[in-house]
Amino acid sequence: MHTRHRRNHRSVAIRAASLAGAALLLLPLAACVKKASTAQPTATPTTTTDVSPGDTGPSPVPRSSIYAFAGTKAFGVGEAGKVLYQATSGTWSEPQWTQKGRYAAAVSRTLNAKDARLAVIDSQTGKVINIRCGCGSVALVGDSIAVWADEKGQLFQLDITSAGVARKLNVSLPQGTPRLAAAGTNDTFLLIASDAPDGDNGKGAAYSVKLDGSKTLVRDLPEVSTLQFAAARAGGGEGARWAYQVIESQGDCAHPGPILVVDDAGAATTPDVTDLLGGKTAEEVDVAVLSAWWEPDGRLFAVMQSWICDPSGGTPVVKASLWRLDGGKWLAVEQPALRLEHDLAADTKIVLTDDDKLTLETSSGSTPIAADVLSVVLPPVVP
C-alpha cells in the first residue's frame, strides 16, 4: 500500500495550479512534478511598465464588480462581464490583491526559475508592471507593497506606486532560509522558510513578517518542500488570520501536509477532512487546497480535492470542488459542475466551471469571459 509519506511515487494527482499565493506549480492529474531549477536570478530585479488594455476601460459600475483571474494563458483583471486588462504568456499563480483592491499581482512561472516574472496590474489605469523576480509567489502588503523571495532566498520589496527598483528586505530567521512570501494583509505577510536547498525538503518554519523585518513564528515545520496555498485576512486584533498548507515531501510525487488555520491570537487548528477521504484513512489519501478565501462575514471557503497516489498516476477520490469550514470540519458545498463562484454587485456572480471556463451569470443569462482559467480572486476590501 502506498502511503502519503513515501517518496518513490512517480506522479502527482493534483488538478489545478496557482493557489492563493501558492508557490508550487501544480500540474494536471497524473502529471509528474519536476524539481525546480537551481538557476539564479539577478540580485536586484528591475522593472518595466506598459499598458495592456483588454476589451474596454473601467465603466461606472460599482467597484465590487472587479475581480482578478489567472490560468494557463493569461492573468487579467475583469469588471462584471468584461476583461479590462491582462498580461498574457505563461501559466500564472493565483492572483493577489492589495488591501484596498487597486492592484492585483501574479507570478508567471517558467521551466527556468530565473525567468519567472511578476506582473502587477493597476485596475484603475491599466498600467502593467513587469518584474523578472525569479520567484514562485508574491505577497501584497497594505495598499501598494509587493514582497517576494528569489531563488537565493533573498527577500525583496517594491513600492508599486513608484514602479522603481526593488529593495532588499532583510529578515533574520533562526530557522531556515526564506523561500516563499505569500498572503499579505495590512502590514504583514506569511513567509515560508526551509533549511534545505530550493526544491528539496527539510526542516523549516512559517513566519508572520512585517515590512521592518520583524517577525513572529507561526509554526515550526518538521518537513517542508514548498508552499501549497496560503490565504490571509486582517485580524480583529493586531495580528492576522492565516490559512495555509505546505508540500511536505516532493520526490517523484508531491504530498501535502495538514491544512492549518491560524487565528489572530496565534492559535492554530487542523480542520477535519474526513469527507474528502472517501472512507479511507488520512495515510492513504492526499488532500490539497487549490484556493481559499474568507468571505466578508468571516466564513472560510476553499476549492479542494483528494487522491490516492500510486505508480500508475494517481486515483482521484474527490474532484476539485467547493468546500466551507464549519465548526472545525470541511463540508462540501453542493454545486454540480462548478469549481467556484463569487457574488458580485447587482445580483450577478462570477462562475468558474469544471472545464476551466469563466462566465458571468445574471438573471438574463450567461456571458463567457475567459477560458483556461484556474483561479478567480476578488479584492479583500471594496474601495
From TrEMBL:
Q: What is this protein called?
A: Uncharacterized protein
Ranges annotated as biased composition (Low complexity): 37-58
Q: Which residues form the signal peptide?
A: 1-31
Keywords for this protein: Signal
- Chain positions covered by the region annotation Disordered: 37-63
**Organism, as annotated:** Allocatelliglobosispora scoriae
